[in-house]
Design goal:
Elements lengths: L9 H36 L10 E4 L8 E6 L2 E7 L2 H9 L29 E5 L9 E4 L15 E4 L5 E2 L20 E5 L2 E4 L5
Antiparallel strand pairs: 1-9, 2-3, 3-4, 5-6, 6-7, 8-9
Length: 202
């Protein structure tokens, strides 16, 4: 007596199912890899995540000398200080006590790699975060430094976390936890009292 046989096309059908399942799995893995790769390439070569933050115009006509205008740009706090002659004198007095007086280790536009680290001695524009642990800063006006500091630090900015001190040009003093000067973002002065954050100096 002859044994019953499976239908002629049963085995090929199972084979096609297996092949289709494997192809679907490979397609899913490929799609995932493509998404990850496109995100990585975007951040490297200027995709959405690598684009510069849009410019922001800031009017400073009503900012008095010695005062600070606080704004947000690129998701970070930016402070704009209108320096006084007393602040410039204080900065000159700290020149031999700075960790990086020439700003070689810090971040700022090349055009602002000067003693006052800005487009003009009157204005200091910087990211208001310490360069040690990215902590907020406190502003210390001239002559308000801690007792016992003598003429070593006549005011500027101090990191709230570990107390690193910076002068009115954002330059860090020696023997502080921080080792880099405060970051200066790209910006351009378009008049004596107006600037645009996010635009490279011309």
């Amino acid at each position: 007596m002859t044994e019953p046989h499976a239908p002629q096309d049963a085995r090929p059908l199972r084979f096609y199912y297996r092949v289709a399942l494997k192809l679907l799995s490979l397609a899913g893995v490929g799609a995932l890899a493509l998404v990850m790769l496109s995100g990585l390439l975007g951040s490297w070569f200027g995709g959405e995540e690598g684009k510069a933050a849009p410019g922001r115009t800031v009017d400073l006509a009503d900012l008095s000398p010695g005062k600070i205008r606080k704004v947000a740009w690129d998701g970070r706090p930016v402070w704009i200080l209108r320096r006084t002659p007393a602040m410039e004198a204080a900065d000159a007095g700290t020149a031999d006590r700075l960790y990086d007086p020439a700003s070689r280790l810090s971040r700022q536009p090349d055009a602002y790699r000067n003693a006052h680290r800005s487009a003009s001695p009157e204005w200091f524009v910087f990211i208001a975060l310490g360069t040690d642990l990215n902590c907020p800063l406190d502003y210390v006006p001239p002559g308000s430094g801690d007792e016992g500091e003598g003429d070593a630090w006549d005011g500027g900015f101090v990191d709230r976390c570990r107390g690193s001190r910076y002068d009115f040009a954002g330059r860090v003093l020696q023997d502080q936890p921080a080792r880099r000067n405060l970051e200066v973002p790209p910006y351009r002065l378009v008049s004596d009292t107006r600037l645009v954050l996010g635009e490279a100096p011309r």
